[in-house]
Design goal:
There is one protein chain. The chain is about 30% helix and about 25% strand. The chain is α/β, with parallel strands linked by helices. The chain folds into two domains: about 110 residues, Alpha-Beta Plaits (2-Layer Sandwich); about 130 residues, Oxidized Rhodanese, domain 1, CATH 3.40.250.10. The strands form four sheets. It has a five-stranded mixed β-sheet with strand order 4-1-3-2-5. Strand 13 and strand 14 form a beta hairpin. It starts with 5 loop residues before the first helix and ends in an 11-residue tail after the last strand. About 10% of the residues have low confidence.
Amino acid sequence: MVQPGLVEELSTRLRSADAYNLPMADILNISTYRFVAIDDPQALQHQLKTRALDLDLKGTILISPEGINLFLAGLGSHVQAFMKALREDPRFADLPTKDSWSDHIPFRKMLVKVKAEIIRMNEPAIRPQQGRAPAITPQVAKQWLDRGVDDQGRPVVILDTRNDFEVGHGGFHNAINWHLSKFSEFPQAVREHASELADKTVITYCTGGIRCEKAALFMRDLGLDHVYQIDGGILKYFEEVGTAHYEGQCFVFDEREALGVDLSPHPITC
C-alpha cells in the first residue's frame, strides 16, 4: 500500500521540477546537529536506529554526551516523519535541517554510533552544549567580506576549519588554510597563529557549522575576542547568499562527494 501523503508529495516534487525544468528527484538528504547535554546516549541510540530502519533510511547518526550530529537520506515523507518524531523530544524541538534532493540515496547503510564527541577536538574544557558560539548570518558574513571590515571597522579575515582535502574542492577567496589533516589538529594550529589574528575579526567556517562552532569557542577561550562562526556553514551560505566570495564546490561525506551552490551534486573539479 502506498503510504499516506507520498503520492501528494511526489506530485508536488514533479510539479516543482517541471516548473523549473529540473530533473525529478524524490530522495531527501538532510544534515543537522545540535550541541545539547545528552545523559542517555545508548538509549537514544537504540531508539533512533530502530526508527530509522523502520523508515528505510540510510546515513549516519552520531550521539555523544555533548550532542547529536546526523546525515540522513530516504524518501522525503520518511525523512520528514523521522524528524517530526525526533522534534517531539524537547532537546531537539526546534532542530533545523539543511535539505537537498537527489535521485538516489548516497549512503550504503544506516549507522548509529555513540562517541565521546560528535566532532573530535580533544579539548575537554570546550563544552558547546553549555552555550553556543557567537554566530553571524550568511548575509552579514557577505557584507563584512564585501567591505573587508566588520561593523566596527576592524579588519576581517576568514578561516577555514576543514581538513585540507576538503578545502581542495572549494572555499572562500583568500581564506586562511592551516592544512589540517584532521580537526583535532586545530587547537595547536590556533596556538601557533594566535598572534597573527589578535587585532582582527575572524570568521570561521566549515561545511555545516559543527566544526566552526567548536573552533570559535576554542579561539575565544584562548583570548581572541572577535571570532564568529557562519551560522549553518557553507551549505547555509549557499542557500541564502549563493557564490559571493566562494569558489568551487563544497565537499560532503557521502557518495555525492561535492555539492554546488544549488545544493545538487556537481562533478569534482580539483
